Predict the structure of Adenylate kinase.
Amino acid sequence: MDKGFLNKIDNMNSNKNLNLFIIGPSGCGKTTQAKLIAEKYNLTHISMGQLLRDEMAKKSGFGIEAKGYIDNGKLVPDDLVFDVLISHLKSLEYKNFIVDGFPRILNQGRIIEFFLRKNNSPLTALIHLTLSFKQISKRRTKAGDEFQDQNRSDNSPAQIANRQAFYDDNIEGIRDYFVGKGKFIDINGNRPIEPIFEDIVKAIEKIK
């Protein structure tokens, strides 16, 4: 076969947009993995939680409204979340990014998947790190205060437990939807950082 043709195909594949989301229970290490993935594939890393906290720090209209929900461990309403997320994605022309901490509920997943498809930049995959609350609790106990995100105002034991319960209530619906789309990657998160990252890369290489 013509090598020039093969090179052309390789170039086409390498230029394909890579639009990723990564989710998992609070404390599973998704932000760490998102940063590694962003570095490897030259993607823009967007932390949904950090975006919200940045808006709160700026005391923007959005931030003031969101603060009331976050401080009480509640989910920020979809319309507020989408305003800030879509603004960032639009600046990237909706391509070559990884968003961590989103979607948190099925409706968010459906809407963002449809929105990206409508803008001719479809979702590549939703990566899910699996880790039980018991395993996460062991991590927190072992790491102590260094494990905690000091920038968060919602890191009390009760609020952490609330986030875990919310995750448990919603993950199955998200999984079923994206499995049906052929865009769901399940990764065992109860391991050191390196093997988790290696498995994520292998999975991405199969579908990108």
